[in-house]
Amino acid sequence: MNCKQATQLLSLQQERPLSRRERFSLRFHLMMCKACRNFSTQMDSLRTISRHYAKGEHPASDDRESH
Amino acid sequence: MPDNSSVPGSSAPGSSAPDRSANSAGRVAQAADAQSLTDPQFLEALRNQMIRFATLQLRDEHQAEDAVQEALAGALKNADSFARQSALRTWVFSILKYKIADILRYRQRVIATSELGDTEQQDQAMMDGLFNANGHWHRAERPSSWSGPQGGVQSDHFWRVFDACLNGLPEKQARVFMMREFIELESHEICNQLELSTSNLHVLLYRARLRLRACLENSWFQAPASGKESDTGLTKEGERQ
Fold first, then answer.
1. What residue of B is the nearest CA neighbor of A9?
2. Where is region (Disordered) located (chain B) (predicted)?
């Protein structure tokens, strides 16, 4: 598995559970590849960030301007 | 775009639904007097925030106006139940998300279905820029650690960068990403609405995530420490101030 395939699986993982085989080869790749480990964490962050954004929870200027 | 600088109740009604909007405007004006919502600054800011959010997803200012108008009217009818502004904001955004989903669903019936090919070349170029021929990261593109997802994320500036990165996505990728991550539709719902195959959807989401990730990393997480407030290299930067 290369990084391109690993990142595809890491995105796919946000959509459906990976198969056993996919999980296994992904885990193996991640053990050796720090960049893809970072990518993996970032996929979760991206989801968290998006949900905050969509809830309107981002403290855009209004929180500071209103009292 | 009509002038939005006033409080919701006094804005121009949306063009496509005059009756409804005029009605809403009345209710909004009435409800704006409710106890927790006497702050016109709060309402104006909330409205602007909603317009931005809706416009990003719908890419149509009139429809965005209408959706926001209706969502606000709906929420403000029940304004008494919201003691805190933050609770109201969450509520109003959840209504807005449903409105947007409705509009997208309706629009999809009217629009040609597969645009997947449109950005194929662009996408290929992006992939080549990220990965070498063996499918490994180019050195300069290796994802770095984001020093904790909260690393400065709760700031105005971050959200402006995030907006700009979203704006930079190809339209279809932006749409599916938002449907998935903002409106939180399940994959199969999006496939049904947009008449996409599951694998097409996965490709679109993958590419959207690659782009967004790279954009955030370059523009925020790795931006030169000294210039974080100004040198993001984003053309959209500062546009919203």
1. B206
2. 1-33
Q: Under DSSP, is residue B18 helix (H, G, I), strand (E, B) or coil? A: helix
**Token pair in block for residue B211:** 């782009």
Residues B72, B184 contacting (CB under 8 angstroms): no
Residue A3 contacts B where some CB pair is shorter than 8 Å: yes
Cβ distance B12 to B62 under 8 Å? no
- Secondary structure class of B147 (helix, strand, coil): coil
The whole-angstrom separation of Cα B72 and Cα B116 is 34
Chain A residues in contact with B181 by the CB 8 A cut-off are 46-47, 50-51, 54
Closest CA to B154 of A44, A48, A9: A48
Contact: A41, B145; criterion CB under 8 Å: yes
Instruction: Please name the residue of chain A whose CA is at the shortest distance from the CA of residue B134.
Output: A2
Structure confidence by residue, pLDDT tens digits, B117-171: 457 878 888 899 999 999 999 998 999 888 754 456 667 778 888 888 888 888 8
* Secondary structure class of B50 (helix, strand, coil): helix
Could A45 and B89 be called an inter-chain contact, meaning their C-beta atoms sit closer than 8 Å? no
Q: Using CA atoms, how far apart are residues B52 and B163, in angstroms rounded to an integer? A: 9
Cα–Cα distance measured from residue B164 to residue B169, given in angstroms and rounded to the nearest whole number? 9
Structure tokens at B181: 């991550």
